[in-house]
């Protein structure tokens, strides 16, 4: 898998947007970026994925830079229930490889 | 609720024993994946099945085996259990094998295995 780098932790105020960065400078032209999150000891949850265009769904937005070397996951209005570990993954070979992720704490 | 079910939710057993974990994928999904999450190793891919056939193997020990049945449910068998096998075991499913949709995986709630 293309290596991804994420900050280990970040805090966010409830109701504000949370912007989660991810670097994937070795990504190749046909590799997608996926985001998952895991709320404490629950199964990981798929959030969104993209190739080169910005993507939005009911959970989040994904902004991928033009050179595709980095991306940002945006949670538009963070709630306490968004407190979780967020994983940025560039997969191949049939599997998802979860790194350490970013621990996001949403504070009231 | 992801639509993926796993049983049992908790399992406590002794070293040397054998256990079977069960997973039912989301309706319509043909691929099933097994992952192990331990405190020191993080979330690790073990094995994938697609429509009954093994498709990919990760860091799965020889003491572990899996299969996917014609009704698409899957079982993960863990034998000669050691203390270090204590972990959360997750099953995930996806609609396809290979391609972007295969990485859109839906995870079950997990089985917590404790080996004493």
Architecture overview:
The complex is a heterodimer of chains A (108) and B (116). With 108 residues, chain A is mainly β. Chain A is 0% helix and 44% strand. Helix content of chain B is 0%, strand content 52%. The model of chain B has no long low-confidence stretch (mean pLDDT 95). In chain B, strand 4 and strand 5 form a beta hairpin. At the A-B interface, strand 4 of A face strand 5, strand 9 and strand 10 of B.
In brief, what are we looking at here?
The complex is a heterodimer of chains A (108) and B (116). Helix content of chain A is 0%, strand content 44%. By secondary structure, chain A is an all-beta fold.
Described by the principal axes of the CA atoms, the overall outline of chain B is globular
Helix content of chain A: under 10%
* Total beta strand runs of chain A: 9
The profile of the biggest β sheet of chain A is:
5 strands, mixed
Globally, the shape of chain A reads: globular
What structural category arises from helix and sheet content of chain B?
A: mainly beta
Unreliable stretches of chain A, pLDDT < 50, 5 or more residues? none
């Amino acid at each position: 898998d293309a290596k991804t780098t994420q900050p280990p932790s970040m805090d966010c105020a409830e109701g504000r947007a949370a912007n989660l960065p991810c670097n994937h400078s070795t990504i190749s032209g046909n590799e997608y970026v996926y985001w998952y999150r895991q709320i404490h000891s629950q199964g990981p949850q798929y959030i969104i994925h993209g190739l080169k265009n910005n993507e939005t769904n009911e959970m989040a937005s994904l902004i991928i830079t033009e050179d595709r070397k980095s991306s940002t996951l945006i949670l538009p209005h963070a709630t306490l229930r968004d407190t979780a570990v967020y994983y940025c993954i560039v997969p191949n070979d049939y599997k998802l490889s979860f790194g350490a992720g970013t621990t996001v704490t949403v504070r009231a | 609720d992801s639509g993926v079910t796993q049983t049992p939710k908790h399992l406590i057993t002794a070293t040397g024993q054998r256990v079977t974990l069960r997973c039912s994928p989301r309706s319509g999904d043909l691929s099933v994946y097994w992952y192990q999450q331990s405190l020191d190793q993080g979330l690790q891919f073990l094995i994938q099945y697609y429509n009954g056939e093994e498709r990919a193997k990760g860091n799965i020990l020889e003491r572990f085996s899996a299969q996917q049945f014609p009704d698409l449910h899957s079982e993960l068998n863990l034998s000669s259990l050691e203390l270090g096998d204590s972990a959360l075991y997750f099953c995930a499913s996806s609609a396809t094998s290979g391609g972007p949709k295969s990485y859109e995986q839906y995870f079950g709630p997990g089985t917590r295995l404790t080996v004493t």
